[in-house]
Write a structure and sequence with these properties.
Layout (H helix, E strand, L loop, with lengths): L2 H18 L18 H9 L15 H8 L2 H9 L15 H8 L2 H9 L14 H8 L2 H9 L14 H7 L3 H9 L14 H7 L3 H8 L5
Length: 218
């Protein structure tokens, strides 16, 4: 099994795990809680002295990470106003609120977290950044927002995958076009000696092959 296939399976399993864990993170504690069904519930939690940055024990997720996953802008804004840390990552996979929002394509949340000082180039345990997650998911608007805020385009994950390599692997043509427009490096291979071009050829994607064949303007 190729690494990209393995990476895809890992990402799908990760998204399933994170997407299905909402109920698992619920707790009846009045001071330790990460899942809120409504804004009013969150307000009551804070009113009763709850710890807004509490991380549940199983995955180490905070309320803000979970809200980033679900895309609840109103609740995220409230949590931040009450002191939620945009840079507190999970203890399990070092997941950050920004990486979760970018992975899911939640543009408003990405903008919010960046405005609040989120680490745009944070890498999780796989070495993935918010830009890589957005590129992999085909979230063009999020990719543009991250680049506009000076995200590192050519940073690499643990096995040498860059944002453009992951975009090619998932055949995200618009994202590839955008990354190329900003000068993404297409030559440096992964640890498996794969490049964006070799991956495009393996996928027999003529559109990507044509895009990657265009010489960048000097």
């Amino acid at each position: 099994m190729s690494y990209i296939k393995s990476y895809s399976i890992i990402c799908l399993l990760t998204l399933c795990l994170f997407g299905c864990k909402t109920k698992q993170l619920a707790t009846t504690s009045t001071t330790n809680k990460v899942y809120f069904k409504s804004l009013d519930e969150a307000k009551n939690f804070v009113k009763n002295g709850g710890d807004i940055n509490y991380a549940e024990s199983k995955y180490g997720w905070t309320a803000l990470i979970l809200v980033a996953q679900e895309g609840n802008y109103e609740l995220a804004t409230y949590l931040i106003s009450k002191g939620a840390d945009v840079n507190k990552v999970s203890t399990d996979k070092e997941v950050s609120p920004l990486n979760r929002a970018a992975s899911e394509g939640h543009l408003k949340l990405v903008k919010l977290f960046l405005k609040q000082g989120a680490d745009i180039n944070h890498q999780d345990v796989l070495g993935s950044t918010a830009l890589m997650r957005a590129a992999y998911g085909g979230h063009t608007a999020v990719v543009q927002e991250l680049i506009s805020n000076k995200a590192l385009i050519d940073v690499r994950a643990n096995r040498g995958e860059s944002a453009i390599f992951l975009a090619v692997a998932k055949e995200q043509v618009e994202v590839v076009e955008l990354l190329l427009a900003y000068g993404a490096n297409t030559e440096r291979p992964t640890v498996f000696e794969e490049t964006p071009m070799s991956k495009a050829k393996a996928l027999n994607n003529n559109t990507l092959i044509a895009l990657l064949s265009i010489k960048p303007k000097k």
